[in-house]
Amino acid sequence: MATTVKAYGVTGPNEQLKPLFIERRAPDDNDVVIDIKYAGVCHSDIHTLRGDWGEIPFPMVVGHEITGVVRSVGKNVTKFKVGQNVGVGTLVNSCRTCENCKDGEEPYCLGNDELPGYVATYNSKDWKANWTPTKGGYSQMIVVDQDFVLSIPDGMSLDKAAPLLCAGITMYSPLRYWNAGPGKRVAIIGLGGLGHIGVKIAKALGAEVTVLSQSLSKKELGLKLGADQYFATADAQTFETLKGHFDLILSTVSADLDFDQYLSLLRRNGSLVEVGLPEEPMKVHAFSLVLGRRSISGSSVGGLKETQEMLDFCAKHDIAADIETIPASYINEAWERVLKSDVRFRFVIDIATLVWSRDSDDSQVYRLLEISPVPPGEHMVIRPAGAILVAYPRFCVQKPPLGDVLYLLQIFRGDLLMIHGHLIDLHDVRIQ
Length: 432
Known about the structure:
Layout: E1 3-9, E2 18-24, E3 31-40, H1 43-49, E4 66-73, E5 85-88, E6 91-93, H2 99-102, E7 119-120, E8 125-126, E9 132-133, E10 141-145, E11 150-151, H3 158-161, H4 167-177, E12 185-189, H5 195-205, E13 208-213, H6 219-225, E14 229-232, H7 237-241, E15 246-251, H8 259-263, E16 266-274, H9 286-290, E17 295-298, H10 304-316, E18 323-326, H11 331-339, E19 346-350, E20 364-373, E21 380-382, E22 389-391, E23 395-398, E24 406-411, E25 416-419, E26 422-425, E27 430-431
Keywords: Metal-binding, Oxidoreductase, Zinc
Pfam families: ADH_N, ADH_zinc_N
InterPro entries: ADH-like_C (IPR013149), ADH-like_N (IPR013154), ADH_Zn_CS (IPR002328), CAD-like (IPR047109), ER (IPR020843), GroES-like_sf (IPR011032), NAD(P)-bd_dom_sf (IPR036291)
């Protein structure tokens, strides 16, 4: 039986995200039903909903950095049990029969006669749901085949683990493929959502790690994360100082680069790997490649086996994303901050903040409000339609900026107000 769940998404082009309801397919015998606890905010989410990568069907819900707890399992499920901490990354199915799938490289699925390729966690046609579009993790629950669910290691917090399901494996996969480790010199271009995790993983693998950033504004932070060196690329001397120094360079930025400049930093047989997806075609002179037997390559996320390996590696080495946890009402503002690179280093949505209800009977009234956290001990201020209510400490609720809203359910029976899943007794609330 299909299930209707709460989500944050869009119902048309050029919209800000808003509360809505979506339908999850009925689970089959091989499926795991997951109560989502946290969803990371990835730049891909923004590109997708803004139509940067092509048209999308509506309504659409994004999010492919998902952590949660198993609610139920199908009778054929052997890998997971109820109550287990799990994760879902960028894909939820593949053909499983092509050469790449058999090699554990599901993100590079070639497809077959029945399935054209891998099924992405969102904005992809799901053959298990009559080819309807998949919808992502900015929602309460998801149904996923057990072969595409990942185990979150014991002791790893679900909020900090969420970005590892995309950003973490995006960095881990090329570092492993190009054998980053002791004796290898690795440069990471950009210290953002991808780069900061890359620094941690490369260092844990035993490589010498250098951050290349436009300025030195994040130098102290980069060194604290584990980088051995930090250079500003705006300084022309950087390219003279580091000429022929690196075995591997990972570019995590979407800005257009002078690839000839960066290729000059590679040793013989060195590789520059692009994971940041610049919008413009790459321009490079052949001599920059030929004279040092250097190469430019690209890398997507890793397969399921490698992603599980990454999670276990991060747990062993105490690696997690540096995050800012946000309520669902803050998503639109968070997206604007991502575009301004104003986050250290990933936003993660607390899915418990998806609290509203259908207008199913006369006793329920919707109120449009915005919630932002306040320090412990301060009051919650509610501003619905001119009235101000002050209640016991939890959250501060203020008049929302455009598009940054959350539905709160006023339950008149018993005079209780439900905020973030917490019932507040209005008898103790004073009106100003």
